Amino acid sequence: MVTSGQQGRRQRQGAMADAGGRAAEHQVARLYEAQGHRLVAARWRGQGGEIDLIFDAPPALIFVEVKRARTHDLALHRLAEHPRHRLFSAVAEYHALQAVPQECICRIDAALVDGTGRIKILENAFV
């Protein structure tokens, strides 16, 4: 049986993890924007899943999955556990709903954020 104290601790931990994830996404968004890319959507949710960040970088669209952990290696491990089919399904759904032209170049990057806020970008991480 879960006590109210345990439940409260879990809720606080979940809220802290969500806030940390949002902060990491914000850091990554600033990095891509500094490179001249325009943020199109953050936490875009479709029926198939969620895309953390989407950037317009003509002639391409860049979909970014952000993973935050104490180290880049741990973030990479979490990325490996991520159900890729949900990410691919969300990207396909975004394409269909936004009428993205077939000739559009698209890539899916992974952004790994460690506990100190350092960011490591893996371009085309899911190829």
TrEMBL record:
GO terms for molecular function: nucleic acid binding. InterPro entries: Restrct_endonuc-II-like, tRNA_endonuc-like_dom_sf, UPF0102_YraN-like. Residues 1-20 are annotated as: Disordered. It comes from the Bacteria. Belongs to the UPF0102 family. PANTHER family: UPF0102 PROTEIN YRAN. This is Uncharacterized protein. It comes from Palleronia caenipelagi. The lineage of its organism: Bacteria, Pseudomonadati, Pseudomonadota, Alphaproteobacteria, Rhodobacterales.
